[in-house]
Amino acid sequence: MTKAKYWKLLQTHLGKQPKVLVISAAKRFFEAAFNESILSSDQADTQIQQQLLRWVRDDSNGEQRLLAERCLLCFISWEIKHVCLQLANQFGAIHGFTSEDLLLLVLDDDGSIELRNSYTCFSRKILQSFDPVQSSLTPTRTTN
To answer: Which of 127, 88, 87, 123 is nearest to 108 (CA)?
Structure first.
C-alpha cells in the first residue's frame, strides 16, 4: 500500500486541473520515519497521523516538526479534493458549481516546508484547528 499522499501535494492553478507536486524532503522524512510493519497495518493512517501530529506539536526538533507538518498538509490536500468532489456530485448541478470551482478556492498550499509569508493556506488552517480527540483527518467514507 502506497502512502504517497503524505509527500505528494495537490495544487491548483487558475482554471486548471489540480497538479501533483512531489515534495522530496517530505518523502525522505516519511520513509525514514515509518517502518514497513506500520505502513502495512490496517490502522496505518491513524497511527501515522497520530505520530506526525505528536511531532508537529513537539517544539524540541524544529526540522522534524516542519517535515511532519508538511506530510500532514500533503495528506490533507487529498482529503480536500475528495470532499470537493463529493460536494460537487451532491450539490453542484443544483447550485451551479463544479469541483474545479471549489478546488480553486481551497487547494492554495504552495508546498513550502516553512511559512514564507503571513498568508495561511486552507490546509494549514485545518491542521492548526484539528483536534485528534474529537475527529480524524480521514473521515469515514459513505457511498451514495
So the answer is: 123
Whether the pTM exceeds 0.85: the reply is yes
Give the C-alpha distances (Å, rounded to integers) separating 35 from 3, 16, 113, 136.
Answer: 12, 36, 23, 22
- Straight-line distance from the first to the last Cα atom of the chain, in angstroms, rounded to the nearest whole number: 25
Q: Which residues contact 120 (CB under 8 A, 6 or more apart)?
A: 128
Flag whether pLDDT at 27 surpasses 50: yes
Return the C-alpha cell found at 54. Answer: 505528536
Pairwise CA distance, residues 88 & 85, whole Å = 5
Distance CA 73, CA 79 (A): 10
The pLDDT tens digits for 40-80 are 666 678 888 989 999 999 878 889 999 999 999 999 999 99
Task: For 50, list phi and psi in degrees, rounded to 5.
Answer: -60, -45
> How much is the pLDDT for 130?
85
